[in-house]
Amino acid sequence: MTAFILLIDRYTELWGRLLAWCIPIMMAVTAGVVVMRYGFGAGIMAMQESITYLHGSIFMLGAAYTFKHGGHVRVDILYQRFSPRTRAWVDSLGTLVFLLPLCGLIVFSSWEFTAKAWAIRETSAESGGIPGVFLLKSLIPLMAINLALQGVAELLRNVRVLSGAPSC
């Protein structure tokens, strides 16, 4: 079980570290769009759309990384006072009742939407835009799968706490 938890954690950590590099790239592209538009009176649609792709990638694929590091919103008024064992119960129930069913719903409801985009290799509606809208739409089920994987790792970690095993 520990090896499985660590494997998922390494996978999530790798995604998070790769996505971190998208932030300065997105900032540079945004600055480039502004300079092109206001400095030279020109716009490059692919540059503008690439900001949306980078932004979507950071937020959608970074959700599992944020979850792993405890960065998602939670009501801490009572939680911070709970014992580690009570926190493990709360987190386990939250994962089982809310997180995993939500991830399943997102995958289920976005699968056909994404498959249709792939079937026609959906492209940008804008002239000169990025011909990869199907890739952007693929982030939806991929986000849910990554988040569910990290949810399973956190659930197993909580099971270890509840069983009295050393944490990993």
UniProtKB/TrEMBL annotation:
<feature type="transmembrane region" description="Helical">
    <location>
        <begin position="50"/>
        <end position="67"/>
    </location>
</feature>
<dbReference type="Pfam" id="PF04290">
    <property type="entry name" value="DctQ"/>
</dbReference>
<keyword id="KW-0813">Transport</keyword>
<keyword id="KW-1133">Transmembrane helix</keyword>
<comment type="similarity">
    <text>Belongs to the TRAP transporter small permease family.</text>
</comment>
<feature type="transmembrane region" description="Helical">
    <location>
        <begin position="18"/>
        <end position="38"/>
    </location>
</feature>
<dbReference type="InterPro" id="IPR055348">
    <property type="entry name" value="DctQ"/>
</dbReference>
<keyword id="KW-0812">Transmembrane</keyword>
<feature type="domain" description="Tripartite ATP-independent periplasmic transporters DctQ component">
    <location>
        <begin position="26"/>
        <end position="160"/>
    </location>
</feature>
<protein>
    <recommendedName>
        <fullName>TRAP transporter small permease protein</fullName>
    </recommendedName>
</protein>
<comment type="function">
    <text>Part of the tripartite ATP-independent periplasmic (TRAP) transport system.</text>
</comment>
<comment type="subunit">
    <text>The complex comprises the extracytoplasmic solute receptor protein and the two transmembrane proteins.</text>
</comment>
<feature type="transmembrane region" description="Helical">
    <location>
        <begin position="128"/>
        <end position="149"/>
    </location>
</feature>
<keyword id="KW-0997">Cell inner membrane</keyword>
<keyword id="KW-0472">Membrane</keyword>
<dbReference type="InterPro" id="IPR007387">
    <property type="entry name" value="TRAP_DctQ"/>
</dbReference>
<keyword id="KW-1003">Cell membrane</keyword>
<feature type="transmembrane region" description="Helical">
    <location>
        <begin position="88"/>
        <end position="108"/>
    </location>
</feature>
